[in-house]
Structures are given as structure tokens and as C-alpha cells.
Specification:
The complex is a heterodimer of chains A (301) and B (152).
Chain A: H1 12-24, H2 26-29, E1 42-47, H3 52-64, E2 68-72, H4 86-96, E3 99-104, H5 109-116, E4 121-126, H6 132-146, E5 153-157, H7 164-174, E6 179-183, H8 192-195, E7 202-205, E8 217-220, H9 231-240, E9 256-258, H10 279-298
Parallel strand pairs in A: 1-2, 1-3, 3-4, 5-6, 5-8, 6-7, 8-9
Chain B: H1 3-7, E1 14-21, H2 25-31, E2 41-48, E3 54-61, H3 67-76, E4 81-86, E5 89-95, E6 101-103, E7 124-129, E8 134-137, E9 143-144
Antiparallel strand pairs in B: 1-3, 1-4, 2-3, 4-5, 6-7, 7-8, 8-9
Classes of the chains: A alpha/beta (301), B alpha+beta (152).
């Protein structure tokens, strides 16, 4: 394993071994135990578009392992605006560090970087394309919450058409025999290029009530206002897919709700204190998962 | 001497592209930028063939196809055969194949793909299946088939 451009770069065995290592690293991620595994190593975080959560969690993960970080949080401070190509920027930065996290607004940017860089490239999100560390932390969260990844019934609700996290996660979960239920208005349905590749049973639903009681996991995504030309349409659709604690009376007691965050009002705050809410733990899980990945890529272990 | 040869005279030097999928000949001319060149070109459409039912044939005088042109041809008409003619006889017979990776000759339709937005980067597609010419951009992952391929 040299670069992580897409979740497809990892087979099931590698995924399971990363998740296992992430679990072992939990005390270090929480600051209860010290590690100097990556002491003297430098991680570059190159963010050609802002993403505070992804950047900070990578920097925290690197520093928890004793390493240090250089980089930029937004391209306005770089030569990018002077017209420098991504390829030139990567050639430079790969000489300054032991691995590079790249976030870029264009699809395929991380793949291009991986063809040029001598040090490992980690895709921190490329346009509407891939965001493999998000998928890994989603998988880790499901495994930690449910005790397993195999043979679960997972519902995905919200904007399934444009949400890249649910595309990659569907394809990854399918590899673990998950039964997927897609809940969305027709205009935001899961695209065919994703469902065409699924090998297990899956189904679509217009409303959550019809399927909620069967689910082990409900993955919620935000419905973005800008997808709707008509504000009234947006309000109607967004209102119909809102989760609140009353609705959850029909759910299995062990059902868990995940959300990549930030949320707006698709999950009511009265869900936060129920046993179903796993999304804040999910956000924290970005740290141990990214630590496991950095160890593997930089530490050569 | 068969009818086919009588219709158009043999050429002395150049290229004969035989067994082009019937109806594709015109498109091949377009893609290979052969229109407007000053060499003599003959296009035969819907010729009766022994191997396939109907085929198109193109004869280009005094010009041999290069590798990139042959690759483009492979995408347009996978079963075509390229005959390089020197002094009235076939000097070389090239059975064309669709390569596993197709670079520089097909546009990626995704405007936000890095290959459409970075100087010095060529497009690159992986062949997924020869049937319908199913290909995938190695950068953004966009998939296409025969119907929506645009050549550069």
C-alpha cells in the first residue's frame, strides 16, 4: 500500500486490519497514552479548498503519534493563484514531507498527485469524487457500534444523488454483505452508476417509516438548499426527511444513527441524547482511523 | 479480379483500411483528420464482404497511418485491418486491437475532472469491456461507452 486515493485501493483484509489497529490506538487518540511512533516525520496537509474537520483531524492524528505537520488551509495563500499546476505543487511538497494529505476541488486530483509524488498521497476529498478516509471512519464507527460489519441492514437517507460519502460507503458496505435501503425523494435518488455495482439486495423507499423498524444503522446526509431551484420545494422535501426522537420509537433499541456532519436540521437536537445518536462519536473516530492509516503509510508497518 | 478491386484502382503507396464496420467509414475519415489533406482518398461504403456482411473500405494514397491514428481506429471499428501498401503490394498487415489504456485521444466529459483543468495532463481511460466499448477515466472514474465517446 503506497497511496490512498480511493477506498477501492484497499481490499477487505487491509480494511479490517486498519480498523483493528484504529481500535488499539483509541487510548492514544484520546490523549490517555503517548506514542512517538512517527517522531521526526512530517505530514503535509495541502487543502486547495477548505475543510476544517478533515484537516484538523489529520493534524491531530499526526501529532498524537509524535509527528509534525506543515501545510495550508486554503489556496489563497499559495502559488496556486499565480497559476502553478497541481503537479508542480506536489513535486515541491513531496520533497518537504513524508506523506501528503490532499484536498482539492477537482475530481481525480489525488490520482494525478499519486502518479507524481515519491511519498504517499492520502486523498482528503477530490471534488465530487472520493474521500476514502471518511469511508474508513464510517466503517470503523459501524463496527464499533454494532460489533460487526457483516450482514447488517443499513439505511441511507437524504441527498443520495450528490452525496459522495454515501456513494463510497454503499460500495464499501456491499463488500461486507450489507443489505442497503435507500430513502430519498426521487430527484435525489442513489445514482445508477452506484447501484449497478451492488451485489447484495438493496431497495429504495420514499419514506423512512416503512423501513425504519428493520434497520441496524441509519446514515443521514444533509439535503442541500442549492439543489432545489424552488425554495418551497426544498422546505417540503427537507421537512419530510427530518429525524426526531418521536419518530425513533419504532426503531430497534440498538439502531444507531450516523451523520458525516455538519448537520443543519435534518436531525433534531432532541435525538442527541438518545442511545441512537452515534454521530459525535463518529466524528471523533476520524482521529484513530487516520492514525492507523498514517502509521501504515509512513511508519511502513 | 473481384468487383471490389475494379471499382477503385489499387494504390501504389499508402494505406488501405479494410473491414471497417459498415457505415463507419465517414466517421473514420473525420476522426483521422483525413478530410482536407491533399492526398487522394477513396471511401467505399457498404461493400459486400466474405468475412462480414457489409463493410467500408478506405484507401489513402501516399500516407501511412501512425500509432495514434491506429489507436483511434481501434475504438471506432475494432475489427478493421490496416494494410500498409508499398509499391502495389501489402508491406504490412496490422490487425488492430483496443489497448487496455486509452490515452490522449478521448475527451473526458466531466468538466470538473483534473485532466480537463491542468496543463500538461493527458486524458487516460481504462478499457473495462470491449463490448460497447465500455471505458473509465482513470482520474475521475467517469464511465462511458461507444455512444458518448468524443475524440480529441
Amino acid at each position: 500500500m503506497k497511496h490512498i486515493v480511493s477506498i477501492e485501493d484497499l481490499d477487505n483484509k487491509s480494511i479490517m486490519s486498519l480498523l483493528k489497529r484504529a481500535r488499539e490506538l483509541l487510548p492514544v487518540a484520546e490523549g490517555k497514552k503517548k506514542s512517538d511512533k512517527l517522531k521526526g516525520k512530517i505530514l503535509s496537509t495541502c487543502f486547495f479548498e477548505p475543510s476544517t474537520r478533515t484537516r484538523l483531524s489529520f493534524e491531530s492524528a499526526m501529532q498524537r503519534l509524535g509527528g509534525s505537520c506543515i501545510g495550508f488551509a486554503d489556496p489563497s495563500a499559495t502559488s496556486h493563484l499565480k497559476g502553478e499546476t497541481l503537479s508542480d505543487a506536489i513535486r515541491m511538497v513531496s520533497g518537504y514531507s513524508d506523506a501528503v494529505v490532499l484536498r482539492h476541488p477537482r475530481e481525480g486530483a489525488a490520482k494525478l498527485a499519486s502518479e507524481i509524488s515519491d511519498v504517499p498521497i492520502i486523498n482528503g476529498g477530490d471534488g465530487a469524487g472520493q474521500h476514502p478516509t471518511q469511508t474508513l471512519l464510517d466503517l470503523f464507527t459501524i463496527k464499533e457500534e454494532m460489533g460487526k460489519l457483516e450482514n447488517l441492514k443499513v439505511g441511507m437517507i437524504g441527498d443520495l444523488r450528490y452525496g459522495r460519502t454515501v456513494h463510497s460507503l454503499s460500495q464499501a458496505l456491499d463488500r461486507f454483505n450489507t443489505e442497503l435501503h435507500f430513502i430519498s425523494p426521487e430527484s435525489l435518488a442513489m445514482p445508477e452508476h452506484v447501484t449497478d455495482e451492488l451485489t447484495n439486495n438493496w431497495s429504495t423507499h420514499q419514506d423512512l417509516e416503512s423501513v425504519l423498524s428493520e434497520l441496524d444503522v441509519l446514515y443521514v446526509t444533509r439535503i442541500q438548499k442549492e439543489r432545489f431551484p424552488d425554495v418551497e420545494d426544498y422546505k417540503r422535501v427537507a421537512g419530510a426527511y427530518r429525524i426526531n426522537s418521536e419518530l425513533l420509537n419504532n426503531a430497534k433499541p440498538k439502531m444507531r444513527i450516523l451523520h458525516p456532519l455538519p448537520r443543519v436540521d435534518e436531525i433534531s437536537t432532541n435525538v442527541d441524547n438518545t442511545k441512537h445518536a452515534a454521530y459525535f462519536r463518529q466524528a471523533f473516530n476520524g482521529i484513530p482511523v487516520r492514525m492507523a492509516l498514517l502509521e501504515k503509510l509512513i511508519g511502513g508497518k | 479480379m473481384s468487383d471490389n478491386l475494379l471499382r477503385v484502382q489499387p494504390i501504389r503507396n499508402g494505406t488501405v483500411i479494410d473491414h471497417i464496420k459498415a457505415g463507419r467509414g465517414k466517421k473514420v475519415l473525420d476522426i483521422l483528420s483525413l478530410r482536407g489533406s491533399d492526398t487522394t482518398i477513396s471511401l467505399l461504403i457498404n461493400v459486400q464482404s466474405k468475412i462480414q456482411e457489409r463493410k467500408d473500405i478506405i484507401k489513402i494514397e501516399d500516407r501511412e497511418l501512425n500509432e495514434i491514428e491506429i489507436e483511434k481506429l481501434a475504438l471506432l471499428s475494432p475489427n478493421a485491418i490496416v494494410n500498409i501498401i508499398r509499391n502495389y503490394s501489402v508491406a504490412e498487415k496490422i490487425k488492430i486491437e483496443i489497448p487496455e489504456f486509452i490515452s490522449e485521444i478521448v475527451h473526458c466529459p466531466n468538466e470538473n475532472c483534473i485532466c480537463n483543468n491542468e496543463r500538461g495532463v493527458s486524458t487516460n481511460f481504462k478499457l473495462l469491456s470491449e463490448e460497447n466499448l465500455h471505458i473509465k477515466c482513470t482520474y475521475c472514474g467517469r464511465k462511458m461507452d461507444e455512444e458518448n465517446i468524443n475524440f480529441i
